[in-house]
Amino acid sequence: MITNTGGPAFPTENEHQSGNQLWHYEGMTLRDYFAAKAMQGLLANPKLQDQILKEGGAFGGWVEHSAYGWADAMLKARES
After folding, report:
1. Per-residue pLDDT of the chain (80 residues; tens, 9 = 90+)
2. DSSP letters along 34-55, please?
């Protein structure tokens, strides 16, 4: 399990009061943001279309795992 999420991608002060409850929203993590950008690039690359289809297409898991692999590499690069 990955513990380094990079924190919030777009940190803001965003709270909502509803009755007695106070809700605090941080939004998506930087890891999720990086993964979304990597997934966009993977899916837009025509040279990878055969690989994606061979691995099960949108539901095979290859694209998602690859995207998060790239996201984790980006977070690691930020540490150095």
Report:
1. 567 888 888 776 666 666 676 666 677 899 999 999 999 999 899 988 888 888 887 677 888 899 999 999 999 999 88
2. HHHHHHHHHHH-GGGHHHHHHT
The predicted model scores a pTM of 0.73
- 24 CB-near residues (< 8 Å, 6+ apart): 14, 15
| Residue 22, φ and ψ in degrees, nearest 5 | -115, 120
Q: Strand locations in 1-80, DSSP E?
A: 15-18, 21-24
Residue 35: count other Cβ atoms within 10 Å of its Cβ: 22
